[in-house]
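Good day; I would like, with your permission, to put a structural problem before you. What I wish to show you is a protein chain and, alongside it, a tokenised description of its three-dimensional fold. Please examine both parts with care and let me know of anything in them that strikes you as inconsistent. Thank you for your consideration; the sequence and its tokens are set out here:

***
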Amino acid sequence: MNYLTPKEKLEIVLDLCEKHGITAYNIGGNTPLNASGVQRILKREVRPQSKTIDILYDYVIEKERESRHKESLKVLENINPVEDLETGYSNSIQEMVAREVYKRLEPLLSEIIQQQQQSNRILIKNSIQLERIKIDIDDLKTNIEEMNKVLSPKK
């Protein structure tokens, strides 16, 4: 499988933010990231950590999927029927197929979006828990060092 590097992901994030008008405020309000920190990332003033890039990447990819879904729905809604010249009825095969495809795909697309959103929420929760664990480990190391100083005989 071909994985993206953090640098490649960041470039995609920056491109999609520009393409869809995604602001630091949008990202800050919908992720655990701070809007002012995101603003500095979007302005390329700082180099974010990989974990931050992953959160940004997941958010903008979700927005890209939502945008594509909306575009697909617009295309299906704007199909113009061709009237049969003899009967005056709309019986375009293209229209009938499009309506059937739309009826079958719309619930599936909605389910996919919901599942992706749930997956993103789980990823964010896991990232937060991992950070808390790292902090706890650092605290434990500090406590152990302090205990060793107290318990070790002074020379």
Observations:
- The helical segments are 6-20, 24-30, 35-42, 50-77, 93-151.
- The radius of gyration is 25 Å.
- Residues 93-151 form the longest helix (59 residues).
